[in-house]
Amino acid sequence: MAGRKGSDFAGVSVAIITPFSHGDVDYGRLREQIDFQLDAGTKCIVPVGTTGESPTLTHAEHEKVIEEVIQHVAGRAKVMAGTGSNSTAEALRLTKRAAAAGADATLQVAPYYNKPTQEGFYQHFKAVAESVDIPVCVYNIPGRCGKEIEVATIQRLAELPGITMVKEATGKLDQCSEIVGTTNLTVLSGDDSLTLPMMSVGAEGVVSVVGNLVPADMIRLVNAAASGDFATAKSMHHQLFSLCNRMLGLSTNPIPVKTAMKMLGRDTGELRLPMTPLTDKQAEVLRETLLGYRLGLN
Question: Which residues have a catalytic role annotated?
Answer without folding.
Answer: 139, 167
